[in-house]
Each structure stands twice: as C-alpha cells, then as structure tokens.
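Hello forum,

I keep getting stuck at the same step: I have a sequence, I want structure tokens, and every attempt I make locally crashes halfway through. Rather than fight my setup again tonight, could one of you with a working pipeline run this one for me? It's a single chain of 291 residues.
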Amino acid sequence: MPNIDTILCPVDFSEFSEKAYDYAYSLARHYKAKLFILHVVEPLIPVYRGYLSPTFVDDVCARQDADAQEQMQNLEARQKSEKVESEALVQWGFVPDSIISFAEEHKVDLIVMGTHGRRGLDRLTMGSTTERVLRKAPCAVLAVRQPMWDFVRPASLEDPVRLRKVLCCTDFSESSPRALEYAFSLASQYQAEVTVLHVIEHGKDDPEAREQATKCIEEVIPPEVRNWATVVPYVRTGKPYQEINLHATQTQSDLIVMGVRGRNALDIALFGSTTSRVIQLGPCPVLVVRN
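Reply #2:
Ran it on my machine without issues. Output:
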C-alpha cells in the first residue's frame, strides 16, 4: 500500500480549488497526513517595473499579499480539526513551477488540485496550471472538479468527502499495479467498493476475449484484499476514455484511478490521450498515479 504522509493542495480561491481542498482535507484526515495548503501569488506588474514608482510597486504587492492571506484564512475556516495537521503558505512566483518545486522540496506524496472541468467536446481544457503540474509532478496527482453528483459535505461535517465507489482502470501494463495499490488503499480508508475495469480497445465484442480479460483482472487482485473490500472485475469494449467515462457515469463512481508510465511518458503523451480525456470529460475526480 502507498504511504501518504504529506499532501499538497494548491489553491487559487476559486470554486474548483475549494472543492479540491475538501478532498485534500478528507484524505489528510484518513491517512493522518500533514496537509500543506499553498497559494502562489503571481505579481500583477512584472513587466515595465523599472518605469513604475517603487512606492507604487510595493503598495500593489502588499495589497496582493494581504488579500491572499485573508482568503487563505477564510478557506482554512471551512474545516478545522485537531485530527488534521495543516500548514497554510503564501508564496510569490510562477504558479506551476512553484507547485512542482514545493512538492519536490517537501517530498510530497500526493498533490490535490482543482481543474476547470468540462467545456464541451469541441474545447477540451483542464486549465494550464493543472496540465503543467500533471506533466511534471514528482508524485500522484488528484485532479478535482465538481462531480456530476454531490457527495461532498455529507451529514458528518467532520469529513467533507465520502468515497463509496472507486473505479480503477487497468490495461495490464507496468503502470497498472501501482494504480491498483492506490485504489485498494483508498477502499481501505473509506470502506469503498472497488471496480477494476479493463477496456478491450480493438475488435468487436468477443465473449472469449471478455472471459480472458476477466481472468487477467482476477489475477491482479491480491487475495487478501477480498477479505476487507468488495472488488468487482468488469470488462468493456470500445474506445477506452469513452468506456471509462460511461462506466463511471452509469455506476456513479466517486473517484477514478489511472496509472501512467512516469513523467517523461506523461509529458509526451498525456494530452489527447485516454488519461487527459478522462480528466476533462469524466463525471468525477481522477487520481493519476505514476509507477
């Protein structure tokens, strides 16, 4: 099982980062992890600085910093529990680079951040900051946006997120086992059901191929996991991202877990790939795990 001792939640005080904060807080609570809440301020007047009065520049920067500190306090007030050790920080710099540097310096185990969500099939976007962090992050990244169904902030306000169904996608590649570890770990923490899904991409719906794929799924599920978790193997046929999103929608999955093959492969192949389209078009948050 993965060790999640430190969690980083970058925030920009939008509705997307507020939703991400709920997830980060809940995960920190379940894993007893330290939670870093980071807001990066990009100077509003980085250009032509030499033509401006130093007093004016200092005044603008001071107001930016004060505003960030105030909003950070408001965000922290959403959740306050002795069970979660948290530290809120405001830094200056270029947002994606600052997030990556912070994660590397503090050996962060998980980054939880918001995305811009769906804007239609003709205009796929998840936000440039999220894209860059996904490409370069040294750890797993949970990309969060507003789910299609609301299970955030249930009756118990002590835990703002309830995960009931986790969907883990496997293509039986070298990146799949790590994703399964995270899915089973989440199932253990939240007492959630795990569906292990494989999509047969080429060919027609072949019962023999389905049976073989189901056997392969069964083989990658550790026997001891079945002692404490409900694990459902499932096979679909079609375009992977479409079938993954369709299955998540039909079963009302609360979280999708996907494995990728390291930073270099992700940097080259993420966008336009299955992973990016699931993040952009799927009905729920997506946890991207590197092997």
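The beta strands are 6-10, 34-41, 86-92, 110-114, 140-144, 165-169, 193-200, 231-237, 255-260, 286-290. If your local run keeps crashing, start a new thread with the error log.
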